[in-house]
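ESCALATION

Customer reports they have been waiting on this structure for their group meeting. Please prioritize. Original submission:
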Amino acid sequence: MRTPRMRCIGAGFTAALMLATTPSLSAQSTFDGDITAAGHKQYALDALSYVAPASSGGWLWLNPRAYRGLSHNIEVGAGLSYYSHTAGGTTSFQPSVKWRALRDTTHRLILSVGAQSLVALRKNADHYGLAFVSLDSRIHQSEHAPGSIAVGTYSLVGRNTSSGDDQRGVTLTAWEAVGPVRLSGTWLSGTNFYGYRTGTVTYTAASGRWMSVGYSQGNASWHNAGPYVSTGRAF
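Update from on-call: job pushed to the front of the queue and completed.
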């Protein structure tokens, strides 16, 4: 999942990354216009792995997270990012905020801005964050088959330039829902914590519970691809 310099996915903010069929109650990509509706909550658990023995570079990444919708189109979240690798384990606390700044219902456009921090829970580890802007265009073919394409840009904040990580990148997210099934794809450019492309298939039950399976491939090449699984509930 990471290079020796700890480059890995940002599915953690993502997150996870994509899911569900009801816009007001959905586990969503970080980088599109969906937010948790005011007064509602959602929780999720993401897992990503390079399936191999640890001696051959295998790793496991886990990301439990939760979100709550506030008034004024604001969503706040918190999670833990745990990465198990040959050198031990790395854990970070991940607070986040997302604001749907503009919604044009006539042209089906949504402008969103957001930020996340990675607060390492050990000494002598990097603490930094990310800020992003995204423009989301809804593709509403019918009530039963909505879709969306979102493009944007992100910047790392407070990241040490000596890390070699790309400090900026482009985001692209697309999804199409057919009934309770949602097909999603997310790509973030750059070789850093967020530089990944991920495709998933998600099923959402009427209760708001959902399960997603897919595959992620990092922009860095060192054992940086594997199966992605996510589950959670919106309520």
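Sent to customer with the following note: The radius of gyration is 17 Å.
Escalation resolved.
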